[in-house]
Amino acid sequence: MSYWQDKTVVVTGGSAGLGFCLARQFAVCGAKVVIVGRSQENLSRAEAEFRSAELAVESVVADVTQDADVDKLFQQIETKHGGLDVLVNNVGRSTRSGVLDTTPEDFQELMEINFYTVVRCTRAAMPLLIRSKGHLVNIASLSAKTPSPFLSAYAASKFAVAAYSQQLRVEGPKEVHSLLVCPGPISRSDAGGRYDDEAESLPEQARKPGGGARLKRISPVDLAKRILKACERRQPELVVPGKARVLFVVSQLWPRVGDWMLRKWT
């Protein structure tokens, strides 16, 4: 029997991209999956794809930037399923701009979407996860460990996710496994042209996934499988590709060398 059989899993931002692939992989492994998003249309489309693959999933419309929606979401989960085994904080958004052109309002917007949603959902779900000795999965980025050109607000918000995740490991409830996921650029069907407008005045690399990082695009399906395995092993972090850890270490020990490597890799 699969480790995930009959476990209840909530994936925020689960109607597309990595969130959808994670939800699908949990469902394939026998979990009871709930995908969360703001758009009923997108959620319905995702549900139809699950049904066509003969997989069961349910969806909940909720805006995880709103306290009331988040509280209602986890109350519904407890009422209907009796508990929660996994929360995947996957909601997020990236932008492109030069660091001095990025306003406080720009930073605040991405902090709300990429970081405060993690805090909000984690706090609401934690009593259920403690009870089940479950898993908390925070989807960050390589930018949570080292910034990339023209991703200033995004990197700042993901650095916050990394710090919060480590704080949870250090002083959070020991019953709950916390996994920080730091992937490089993920393959997307809509990658082309996503940042053309806001990066119009920036170098061409700014329009590319990962701000032009010279890394092979990651399959979201393969990444989802690796995340499930990391949870089963109760790993604290998953960095993909693993070789990026070299840059993290160098940047901590020799910042100027780390900056040079970062410029070279982008």
Give the structure's gist in a few sentences:
This protein has 266 residues and is of the alpha/beta class. The chain is built from eight helices and seven strands; from the N terminus they run βαβαβαβαβαβαβαα. The protein has a single domain, classed as 3-Layer(aba) Sandwich (Rossmann fold).
Describe the model:
This protein is an alpha/beta fold. The chain has a single domain (8-265), classed as NAD(P)-binding Rossmann-like Domain (Rossmann fold, 3-Layer(aba) Sandwich). It has helices spanning 17-28, 40-52, 67-81, 104-132, 152-171, 220-232, 244-253, 255-265, and strands at residues 8-12, 32-37, 58-61, 86-89, 135-139, 177-183, 237-240. A 7-stranded parallel beta sheet has the order 3-2-1-4-5-6-7, with helices on both faces. α1 (17-28) packs across α6 and α7 (244-253) runs antiparallel to α8 (255-265). The chain is globular.
Termini separation comes to 44 Å
Strand order of the largest sheet: 3-2-1-4-5-6-7
> Structural class of the helices, strands and pairings?
alpha/beta
CATH class categorisation = Alpha Beta
In total, the number of domains comes to: 1
Q: Describe the oligomeric state of these chains in a short phrase.
A: single chain
Q: Note the run of SSEs as H and E.
A: EHEHEHEHEHEHEHH
Low-confidence stretches: none
Helix segment tally: 8
